[in-house]
Amino acid sequence: MRIKVTNVYVDDQNRALRFYTEVLGFVKKTDVGKGQYRWLTVASPEEPDGTELQLALNDNPAARAYQQAIFQQGQPAAMFYTNDVKGDYERIKAYGTEFTLPPTDVTGSTIAVLNDTCGNLIQISQLARH
């Protein structure tokens, strides 16, 4: 068994696609729709056939409530790993992205938390080198 797709709820799929591809650097993997339904995923350019992240519209009241609750609690909706959290912080910040936590050393890693402009906090993490 393996994880193929996971998701984050977003309030605007077009804005999310722009942010996740142009700012974070992911690549669009799947974009199909019928009527108001749209299946939209992105993937890491380092693993284009790896796990996909679905940018799921929060048009379900339960999804919207969940998304808003974890955002208000300061909980990241997703975590992405990087080899250079400080470099990625500077690159992403140059796009005007709001960070709620700049690169910070914690036990075993360095993390930063950003606002994805679509209703989510996202954590980027770099494991400590031994």
From TrEMBL:
Superkingdom, taxonomy of origin: Bacteria
Matches recorded under SUPFAM superfamilies: Glyoxalase/Bleomycin resistance protein/Dihydroxybiphenyl dioxygenase
Parts of the chain that traverse the membrane: none
InterPro entries noted in UniProt: Glyas_Bleomycin-R_OHBP_Dase, Glyas_Fos-R_dOase_dom, VOC_core
Gene3D superfamilies: 2,3-Dihydroxybiphenyl 1,2-Dioxygenase, domain 1
Residue span, VOC domain: 2-127
Protein's name in the database: VOC family protein
